[in-house]
Backbone:
């Protein structure tokens, strides 16, 4: 049995977490930025280590992207 996907913030300082990710992209080309995003996703997916949670998170993220394009 897997844990439920948590979508609530787990960071004591969510703004600092956001800034850290934004700053990691600073000075990168679009291609390098996309590669950083892909590497980060794979590293964090491996850390999660739960295919069901990864499947749920992927579906949630994709739904957000698709719905965001409709606006």
Residues:
């Amino acid at each position: 049995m897997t844990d439920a996907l948590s979508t609530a913030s787990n960071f004591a300082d969510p703004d600092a977490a956001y800034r850290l990710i934004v700053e990691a992209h600073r000075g990168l080309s679009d291609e390098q930025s996309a590669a950083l995003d892909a590497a980060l996703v794979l590293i964090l997916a491996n850390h999660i280590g739960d295919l069901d949670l990864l499947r749920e998170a992927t579906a949630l993220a994709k739904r957000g992207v698709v719905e965001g394009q409709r606006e």
